[in-house]
Amino acid sequence: MTREVGVLPPPRRAALLGAAAEEFARAGYERASLNRVIRGQGMSKSSFYHYFASKEELFDAVVADLARAAAAALGAPEPEALAEGDFWAGVGGITARLARVAREEPDAMRFAALFYLPDAPAASPLAAVRAAVDAWIDRALEVGRASGAVGDGLPLALQRHLAKAVVWAMDEWTVANAADLAAPELAGLPEAQLDALRRLLAA
């Protein structure tokens, strides 16, 4: 859990965490420059360390804030809700919602960039978020298998790995290239993602 020694006023805290999120997303965790973030906010090192004990605590605070914002914006349903009606239509609704949130919510795009960092600290809240995503996917796949929409010829863990590979590859690519994509190209990505998932997993 993040340990804040002091309490920054909310506007200053938001500005600091926003700048830190940009730095971590651009450079990765290890190469991110804490000095650059601090200087950009007009803070001294002693002032910074009054609020955060380390770069890792700053990263933890960034992840926790962005994860909350992204989860609230997405509002993902419980996996069991996919049993109501057409399973793949429900999955399509989720991929479309993910794409909309990515377009309209800057914090969600920032969080997506951090989600895939290969050098994030092992004890970061990011690990808990990733574990929660894995658990959600497993439950969704179980619902799909029970309804006959998802095949059962492969182990569940392998199906999860395949699903994550598709979603993560397309999300990483979208995060890296969103600024260069035209609106119709962005709009077509959820359908392409859904089609790839169905080809891999459908019964």
Structural summary, described in words:
The protein has 203 residues and is mainly alpha-helical. The protein has helices at residues 10-27, 34-40, 45-51, 55-74, 87-104, 106-115, 125-147, 156-177, 183-201. The longest helix is centred in the last third of the chain and has 23 residues, at 125-147. The chain is elongated, with a radius of gyration of 19 Å. It starts with 9 loop residues before the first helix and ends with a helix. The mean pLDDT is 89.
Relative helix content: over 70%
Mean of all residue-level pLDDT scores:
89
Assembly annotation: single chain
* Helix-strand sequence: HHHHHHHHH
Secondary-structure-based class equals mainly alpha
Poorly predicted regions: none
What is the count of helical runs?
A: 9
Biggest β-sheet description: none
Give the overall silhouette: elongated
Summarize it.
The protein has 203 residues and is mainly alpha-helical. The chain has helices at residues 10-27, 34-40, 45-51, 55-74, 87-104, 106-115, 125-147, 156-177, 183-201. The chain is elongated, with a radius of gyration of 19 Å.
What layout of secondary structure does this protein have?
Elements: H1 10-27, H2 34-40, H3 45-51, H4 55-74, H5 87-104, H6 106-115, H7 125-147, H8 156-177, H9 183-201
